[in-house]
Fold:
Amino acid sequence: MIELTLSRRESPLADAAEQRRILSRGETDPSFDQVLASRGRAPLQARGTEVLQINVGKLCNQACRHCHVDAGPDRREMMSRETAEACLDVLRRSNIPTLDITGGAPEMNPHFRRLVSGARNLGRRVIDRCNLTILMAPGYEYLPDFLAEHQAEIVASLPCYLAENVDRQRGDQVFKRSIAALRRLNSVGYGQPGSPQFLTLVFNPSGPTLPPDQQQLETDYRRELRARYEIEFTRLFTITNLPINRFLDDLIRAGQLDAYLHKLLEAFNPATIKGLMCRTTLSVDWQGNLADCDFNQMLELPLATGQPRNISELNTSQLSLLTGRRIVTGRHCFGCTAGAGSSCQGQLVDNSSITNPTMHEGGRASR
Ligand code: SF4
Ligand code: SF4
Structure:
């Protein structure tokens, strides 16, 4: 069974303004900025741009239940060649070291190859956020060799080492096809011990819980994937689900939204603030619009007032002004500061800094 996108269902939540309205409802709770201020850490500011993260569109061959993009096979939003070239131009005119390409399934964008090869030719690190199954889809079989040849890093979702848990979250047969894709990646060198071809797996919880300890879970994944499927990978990231798009819809339908938001608030860990990804990321949407992170992008929260709006208008002096900009925040931000913290690079701090250990849920994947 394939999940329908909010857009296809014509859900009110397909409108980002409705999501923002729902998330700002908890008037008796402190705002994210108020909590930061109570720790003497407000306002949240950018430290620089180390990652240009571009979301090249909402088209995806999957339609996972928790998707914060509301991506799926019916979505048609797609970054144009012109906008892709504007992203490469910014890389060329700057020293931003990393291009992080996400979606949807970013490989389905017709300019994906141009982005990977263009950024690699500029000597930049390239990350492909891959759902694995696209590597096995007709017409995309070339991808493992192409990515290996260009030394792109792969960050791939696999929320459990058990088929049932993955298929429940990501769709029928997704686990089986993901395992086949991982074998194919291993065969071209990805994830092999000592290999420079990084293959990072990503865990996110299946429900309204915080992720377990990243290090322990990585040990479990390595043991189980090796024993069951002879699969190797470089490392594991754990990511907290943010209450946006289909995960927000899931929470509302299960009557768990307020409980989840409180859980995130109660698990606030000030040690995570230093490493929040928005402080070093510039996020670009399929139309070139700029945001502090992919989550703000989905909620249609642009950069703060006075900052540039679109990558096409980003000249060299504006790029340097992005450092020190005020980050736009909301209640969803508590998802990044809960427990050991969460980002596109996984957990932000080690467990010893967790101020409320009862909030760190530990244990096995995808319970
Ligand atoms: S979570 Fe990833 S793989 Fe799943 S529908 Fe969203 S973009 Fe596609
Ligand atoms: S959602 Fe997370 S990464 Fe984005 S602005 Fe908020 S704290 Fe920063």
About this structure: The chain has one domain: 6-355. The domain at 6-355 is CATH 3.20.20 (TIM Barrel).
